[in-house]
Amino acid sequence: IVDVKGGPDEGLDRLGQTLVVKGWVRTLRVQSSVTFIEVNDGSCLSNMQCVMNSDAEGYDQVESGLITTGASIWVQGIVVASQGSKQKVELKLEKLLMIGRSDPSFPIQKKRVSREFLRTKAHLRPRTNTFGAVDCFDMVMLSYIGVDVVASNISPIITGSDCEGAGEQFCVTTLDFFGKPAFLTVSGQLNAETYATALSDVYTFGPTFRAENSNTSRHLAEFWMIEPELAFSDLNDDMACASAYLQYVVKHVLEHCKEDMDFFNTWIEKGIINRLSDVVEKNFVQLTYTDAIELLLGSNKKFEFPVKWGCDLQSEHERYITEVAFGGCPVILRDYPKEIKAFYMRQNDDGKTVAAMDMLVPRNFKYSGELCPSSFGVIGMKLKLSSNPPPLSLERCSFFCQVGELIGGSQREERLEYLEDRLDNLKLNKESYWWYLDLRRYGSVPHAGFGLGFERLVQFATGIDNIRDAIPFPRTPGSAEF
Ligand code: 4AD
Ligand code: MG
């Protein structure tokens, strides 16, 4: 039924048919001769325009003021060609039934409200165009990611309310799990490694939790991660898989979510369709961490955090690399110093670096007075550190989308003795990793994998600027209300 309003010409082939729609009133315009009710049932972005004359059954409910924004209704009518310019067809109502009233204090009336405000109404914001679009888009994208049950990412796992009211909830901090400490997982990787080292290529997708107190537009305390793990693979295979995977997902949403993409392009980030098309078509830049440091040192730019080999890259450095040095191209940085990376990453032959990779994506940016360059001129060329700096400067850009690191991965340390050494050096408790070490004791293979943060992917592909708006119920430090 709701297909009727799918596209500019859709629905015309249903002219004359009788349809039933169950949904929520978005707007209501009562005129002397006719009433217009826009209804949305969540199945697509556009509303169904219903036209009601005073002789239709149930009109008394309109007359008495019962039908208000937010109310749920059942309507039956005939599809007719619309007089209006916004839609080809509309529903000429024969019958209207009120299902659930909406209190007049319903906070989402037909006016622009801030996303900050909507975050405080997270239980209602799916009823807005933006969140309807972002959330449905999530589901479609999930199916392209390879998840069979697409409605799986709505319920948060951390919550402030007791669903059964029986007081049987685990505390989220250090859990006392039947006498042993347990934690909420930060990544499914180690488990995926056990499967990869038995079944070859696998992936896991699930909620992950970080107890870091990061209040930024790209950090959540609870987020979903897609984690492929490839057996018999090295870092080059890993980077190739990550790039192809991102391109595959982006290509599919461009092809199959046209209505949503047009919406994002108009309302959220102008030019996002071009930006994503570029991502699909171009190769990504690859650069070692060491070359990136030289690039930053040679830039003559005064960074707030000074650069030196061994330092963790800050977002200002990442921005310089993706947006200034490479004109808006995704960049994969590899071979990081082992001191700033996790224990499981494979040590390179130089003894100082590990086979790690981070894919950094440019935030969307625009220049004041000029157009963004749309092509990645430097792709495929060997980076010449002595070459003239590109004619762009961060000061002239205004930034919207705050994604930065979209993917993090590595080749795993498959050599038992190296891994044990590393655990010892980091003073990590070897006993608690006994099963992980066993993978190296029994049939160890070179393997590699990565993690793609789903909400950062949604941010990247919708242009939504705060990660809190890329997930139905954001969990951030101090916020677990809904
Ligand atoms: O770089 P991270 O921490 O890597 C891992 O967890 C690996 N074990 C993954 C693997 O190799 N299987 O996280 C991977 C990705 C990041 O690149 C980012 O997209 C996302 O997960 N991410 C977050 N997203 C939202 N909020 C946070 N606090 C995030 N931390 C990481
Ligand atoms: Mg990382």
UniProtKB/TrEMBL annotation:
Broad enzyme group: ligase
Family indicated by similarity: Belongs to the class-II aminoacyl-tRNA synthetase family.
Cellular component, GO annotation: mitochondrion
GO biological process: asparaginyl-tRNA aminoacylation
Enzyme Commission number: 6.1.1.22
Aminoacyl-transfer RNA synthetases class-II family profile domain span: 202-472
Name listed for the protein in its UniProt record: asparagine--tRNA ligase
Keywords noted in UniProt: Aminoacyl-tRNA synthetase, ATP-binding, Ligase, Nucleotide-binding, Protein biosynthesis
MF terms (GO), sorted A to Z: asparagine-tRNA ligase activity; ATP binding
Full-sequence range covered: 97 to 578 of 578
